[in-house]
Amino acid sequence: MLVAIWILTVIHWGSALAGLFAFVHALLQRADAYSAADRKTKPIWMLITGGATLAMVLFYPDPYSPGLIFWVPAAAASMVYLVDVRPKLIEVQRGGSTW
User: Fold this and answer.
1) Residue 43 lies in a domain
2) pTM to 2 decimal places
3) What keywords are assigned to this protein (predicted)?
4) I need a labelling partner for 93 at 20 to 30 A (CA). Which of 25, 61, 77, 99 fits?
């Protein structure tokens, strides 16, 4: 049981740090890069990643907790940014795509 608590704690704070990284990355990108990458606007992604980070900090990913209903979509939103939007923004800003 103690091992499960430690694993959930690592998942909790690791995902919150990933969400914070996604928010900071969204904050530092140029606004026109989002439209060039054919993704939602910069303010929308800042709202999504910022809200997701807040939700992951506030709610613990305990399978028996009602807060899990907020934590799971928050973690998914941050991961979508990190694996889909971020690489596209990097590609566009490096000149890998036509503006």
Assistant:
1) yes
2) 0.88
3) Membrane, Transmembrane, Transmembrane helix
4) 77
